Amino acid sequence: xxxxxxMNRVLLRIKVLNLAYLTVSIPLATLxxxxxxxxxxxxxxxxxxxxxxxNFCPSVSAITxxxxxxxxxxxxxxxxxxxxLLLASLYPRYxxxxxxxxxxxxxxxxxxxxxxxxxxxxVEALSLVGVTYISNRENYEVHEKIFIIFMVSSLLYMxxxxxTVNMYENKTETTMEKKSKRLKMSLLALTLAASGGMLYFFxxxxxxxxxxAFSWFSICEYVICFCNMAFHYTLVYDIPxxxxxxxxxxxxxxxxxxxxxxx
Length: 263
Description:
Layout: E1 7-15, H1 16-41, H2 43-47, H3 60-64, H4 69-88, H5 90-98, H6 107-133, H7 140-165, H8 175-208, H9 213-233, H10 235-238, E2 243-249, H11 250-262
Helix pairs in contact: 1-4, 1-9, 4-6, 5-6, 6-7, 7-8, 8-9
């Protein structure tokens, strides 16, 4: 485990909890804004599909792919991506500290899973950027493929994370970590159920043009979105008191001080 670096002068100090809250609240707020304004002012546009059947709930792609909502959504995704990638880099280090609480036999698998989860997290975050900036109205085929990458990487990341947290020895877990594990497992189960529903209703809509099928597809899609956000927010239960610091390491400060005196 990396040893802590003493800081002589701290320029910036941010609680991980606050950064996680910001990272989740930005896309959540922009998604709700896009949904509300689309339903109020562009109801017919966002609920019209190629099947020309009645629908009451638009998809995420529909509400974030029209103007001016697309600009708000793109701004929200852009603002949250930097902090999200930073938070993603914390989990491998967190899991590294927990490796000692995993049995020696399963430890190599545990460490491989943590690295795989980090890679999947990066793919998920970057594919979200891709699916945001290439809308279904501009290029449906590319948008659809990137969306599939997002869904697969998101599900695999959630599954991999749930496997890793269940490899710890229970007696070493804090109350917050146990709560985080239960929440992660529940969110994974709900996401898998919603993903199954989404595939079923997409088939009903695309192949048979069943009335309301696309609305139920969209509802499943929103459930997945909210579960995804909540899953990433469980970071605050795993590392609730940690902070991110930007400052001058003490060793560098002493070297500068000594060199100044020598001159």
